[in-house]
What we know:
Helix content is 27%, strand content 27%. The chain is an alpha+beta fold. The strands form eight sheets. Strands 13, 14, 15, 17, 18, 19, 20, 21, 23 and 24 form a ten-stranded antiparallel β-sheet that branches. An eight-stranded mixed β-sheet has the order 1-2-4-3-7-8-9-10, with helices on both faces. Helix 11 (322-339) runs parallel beside helix 12 (558-566) and helix 16 crosses helix 17. The longest helix is centred in the middle third of the chain and has 23 residues, at 569-591. It is globular. This is ABC transporter ATP-binding protein.
Amino acid sequence: MVGLVGVAAWPERASYRVEQHRILVQTGPNGDQQVDLDATFYVPRSAGRKPAVLLAHGFGGTKNSVADDAKDLADLGYAVLAWTAQGFGRSTGEIHLNSPDWEVRDAQRLLDWLAARPEVRLDGSGDPRVGVVGGSYGGALALMLAGADSRIDAIVPMITWNDLARSFLPEATGGDPSRGVFKKQWAGLFFGSGSGGLGSALSDTESDTGNDLGALLGGGGPPSLANGNPQCGRFAADVCAAYLSVATTGRPTQQVIDLLRRSSPVTIADRIKAPTLLIQGAADSLFPLSEGDANARAIAATGTPVRVAWFTGGHDGGTGPRTDRDRLNFLTAQWFGHYLDGEGSKPSQSFTYSRITGIDATNRDLVASGYSVTDYPGVSAPGRTVEVSGPPQPIANPPGGTPAAVSTLPGGLSSFIGGSGLDIPGQFARFESRPFDGIVDVVGAPTVRLRAASPTGEAVLFVKLYAVGDGSGSLPGGQVAPIRLTGLPASLADAQPVTVTLPAIVHRFEAGQRFAIVVSTSDQAYATPAEPVLYQVAVESAVTLPTVDGEPIRNPNVVWWYALFALLALVVLGVVVAVVVARLRARRSVRSVDAENADTPLVVRGLRKEYADGFVAVRSVSFTVHRGQVVGLLGPNGAGKTTSLRVLMGLTRPTAGEILVFGHRLTPGAPVLSRLGALVEGPGFLPHLTGLANLQLFWKSTGRPGDEARFEEAMEIAGLGTAVDRRVKTYSHGMKQRLAIAQAMLGLPELLVLDEPTDGLDPPQIAEMRQVLKRYATDGRAVLVSSHLLAEVEQTCTDVVVVHKGEVVASGKVDEIVGDSPTVQLDVSDVDTATSVLGKLGVRSVAPDGEGLVVDVNGTPRADVVAALVNAGVGVDRVVPRRRLEDAFLALVGGDTKASGER
Length: 903
């Protein structure tokens, strides 16, 4: 929900009004400094005082970054105050990193402001009923404010930190930040965004992307050199000096650590009494799961209600799939519904987590399945011990830290390396486990013991766990465990083992898969020693993998999200009854079969699609696809082709009409869809997996038996060859298109629906695709193909359906449609004069074609055309019918090859 940077908003309703404010607050260590905060107040229109929500943005963002979230909350009955933190956007002041004396004190003055508003419910004089929500920078503000001010009634901090010093100076053997390894890439992005160097060209409005990395690359608005130092930009002088110091030396002073910890919940967590829902992301190299775990344990130790939820996104993974966001929305609604509204039963304090389990067969979006555990186990859950093997190995630290291994690039840029990491030969040691006999679900932080030797007595190393499956390796969570070891012997025989806690992950190992422990000397994201040196490393055989036996949880319906906030029992009952009735009707509809068309692949009758804003995408479309046919669906842009295909795939519901697939009336999710394969929305694959692995993952997501997939036949028909064993990130656009076609052909469905199947293919591949489609429409199968390449349709399809302005204007055999073309080709002695003469004669169109003309005579007798040219002194050498599908198409649509408002 809010704070998860860019969650899609629900449809707005006119249930709130919006007020823009400049709020002047007294702040600073002595409360004698003034800061002008840019704020927006969203006020529900319904009568009565409402609970309030303070909505904080991420680092580099502004109040506009969370505007959609604010609207959602206001629409559900909360008075929402979103503001731009000092030092960002149009607010004055400097960036102090959520200092208790500055940003936290600012927020306390905003609480005073809310308490004075007549729309806000009060618990006492000057005490508003209020919750705080925020992600990342805003999440830490929620925690800090709750610890500093007892007026806070509930908080939902997301993807944030416990100890800012440990976050930027981690050390995975348990060392304090003074020994930590500097996270230089993330720190540089933070400093660059605040100093104005990356965002100076962008206005506040232009730069509010709602995404933390997007904000880091320019979300702070025009730079303001409040402290007079262009090197520091909008950072306060002490924060700027701290960064410059550690970035220069790679090591923090105690002063730097103290400054970072002042802005950290670790210093105030024992004072947080507001019930806390902690949401943390598994794909987060900035603030990993361990930071959320530290917050949860510290707050729960005081007896405060705490619930922990992990999801598949984070600073590197975004918001996660829709199914993940629905689960988090549900939890947040439940939390605020009880602790702010005082309605509903007390929420459970169980632990929930999720992992990617497949691809949605209808829209190719990733699907995340949620799991629940009664008691939160933390990142150090009990588990199983697995042996790894490998001899002691020498590894070299590169001079100047270059070249360096790549693990995770900040903000999700890791897609450029396919999520699999990149290690430099000679700079890493590898130790592998045996394949697992069965499924192993790892939920938490694995641990490994290693020994190291160094001639200098010190070493900086990076330990990581790779999941190894189909010949390729992935780095779950995209994270590494940096360690700085001191007092090392020169000989490995004298080295004592140290325990390394790897980053917490959520990952399922299937039977036959294994993992590898890799120890590297370098990493692009961290600062490393510049001196070249040769280390010796060895890993003890036992690696501990934490496991959790979670119960699958259903993804909450959006209806329940509204219902929990509104807490209107009668509405809930009505919705439930309506859903049950709709499902019963849908089941009856699915079970009813039109016996007359039970053997017909596709019948479309009177299809109409009208949107809520009155736009009619499809007015009336009817056609039939029989076995053995390759039917081309043609029409100019905006004619309704794609909308018709989306209805056919169950991706949207029609306003009127019906679609029968083998006699079954089609509804979203209907079982008969298993007899249909489609490429409608364009190819979408996981880049770090091979083509074959993507096909296998897609088929698994359908829930159908593996022996029905017929992988080899589909790949042979699509002509993938050996490319199917390469990772998709190496594919050209054309190869991805062929893979998408193979995916549509899995199981050899009886009806194949393709939207622009030749997109991205070169001419030889297009010619081959003609034969693919013709071969496919054998053995009783059928193909429906939408394409703008009319010449290809003419050579490929047996039949065509021409749609124009949402209606079928022609349908039938290709030869019949082409035969109706009124176009002729004229070879003339004077093209310019002939063009002028014909233009006055009333023909529909004249187009040059080599040394002649192609003319749509528009019903004018050919003899009259020739006579007019001869009378004008133009010689006519040849007059032949021009029978092309393109000519017929242009005649049918009146030359209109584009339309506005396409959907």
